[in-house]
Amino acid sequence: MGSPFILLNYKTYIQGTGKGAVDIAKACKTVSEESGIEIAVAPQLPDIYRVASEVELSVFSQHMDGIGAGSFTGHVFGKCIKEAGAFGTLINHSERRLTLAEIEASLKAAKEFGLRAVICTNNVPTTAAAAALVPDYVAIEPPELIGSGIPVSKADPEVVSGSVEAVSKINPDVKVLCGAGISKGEDLRAALDLGSQGVLLASGIVKASDPKAALEDLIRLV
Ligand code: G3P
What we know:
Elements: E1 5-9, H1 19-35, E2 38-42, H2 48-54, E3 58-61, H3 78-84, E4 88-91, H4 100-112, E5 116-121, H5 124-132, E6 137-140, H6 152-155, H7 157-170, E7 175-179, H8 185-193, E8 198-201, H9 203-206, H10 211-218
Parallel strand pairs: 1-2, 1-8, 2-3, 3-4, 4-5, 5-6, 6-7, 7-8
Helix pairs in contact: 1-10, 5-7
Bound molecules: SN-glycerol-3-phosphate.
């Protein structure tokens, strides 16, 4: 397999807010350049423009709505995040759940505006359903392990390998990420050995006292 993809979700952690969003992105860029591994970041929406303007790195939105231009107060418009510098978007995170119809509409809008789409899922059946919509990535994250520090790739390897198998039967072009509790080199190694193409992670890096050192540890067994 090729080089893994690492997507760092800042959530609303204080360490990844405002100037911190830029500082963590700079650490990601340095580690990415040194290692040749693709690393992208998903800061909060108001920080997308700032991060994308100051750091040459792929920036994802944490959410976008399946709406167009017009009367949609408070919604996230794909064209707007694209123009702010976003390269892609998360869709349907466990902390930002959408209905199936909303997921489909959001994905359609992401494709329309040329944004890379990562649909987050919580188990094998929802991963299979998401793959049928043909996003660029599905990211399987069991909610009970999110933020736990217990890596999905070790605590629940079957959900990762089961997702990889289900997606390969539905559409082998859809790539599989896994997430929840991933922070160390052996967690990423185990995720790749289970057939995933990378990880979606947050607290282990964003809340680390030295995010650059934490990233270096994460990739050391790739
Ligand atoms: O989107 C990433 C995520 O939900 C996993 O969070 O803190 O367990 O790495 P964490």
